[in-house]
Amino acid sequence: MRVLVINGPNLNFLGIREKGIYGSLDYSDLLQLLEKRAEERKITLETFQSNCEGEIIDRIQKAYYDSVDGIIINPGAYTHYSYAIRDALASLAVPKIEVHISNVHGREEFRQASVTAPVCTGQIVGLGLQGYLLAVDAVVGIIEENRKES
Ligand code: DQA
Questions:
Q1: Which of 83, 92, 99, 123 is most buried by its number of CB atoms within 10 A?
Q2: Which is catalytic among the residues 22, 65, 78, 83?
Q3: Ligand 1 centroid vs 147 CA: distance in angstroms?
Q4: Stated pTM of the model
């Protein structure tokens, strides 16, 4: 089973940016946590981070050609306005989980809307880096369920 985790703009700045909101662990700590969970769940996990909208879209399209089984995405600020990333996500029929480290619903009004969540299977918000690990468990569970049904 092959799962791709995409992080959008400024998530490479974890541990540097707004620690009160995003915590003090950095992006490489997040990658380590994800690698450990992937080993435990015996899945192949790929990770990708970019500050550029087009690169994120290219990576989502590559996931289609690579036959990735599921996607976990934190689109960062693109969440709130990127119809292009939304369209790219909508192209793929695989399970997709949107993750936000912070509780976007308790923050500025512009963060409370997600244009990408409606084309995702589900959304996890406000649980810190734990949210990514829960998303791995969720996406693996959904893929397994879908396989049993087909
Ligand atoms: C974020 C929330 C977004 O509003 C923000 O622009 C980010 C991070 C989160 O994980 O909480 O960059 O996606």
A1: 99
A2: 22
A3: 32
A4: 0.98
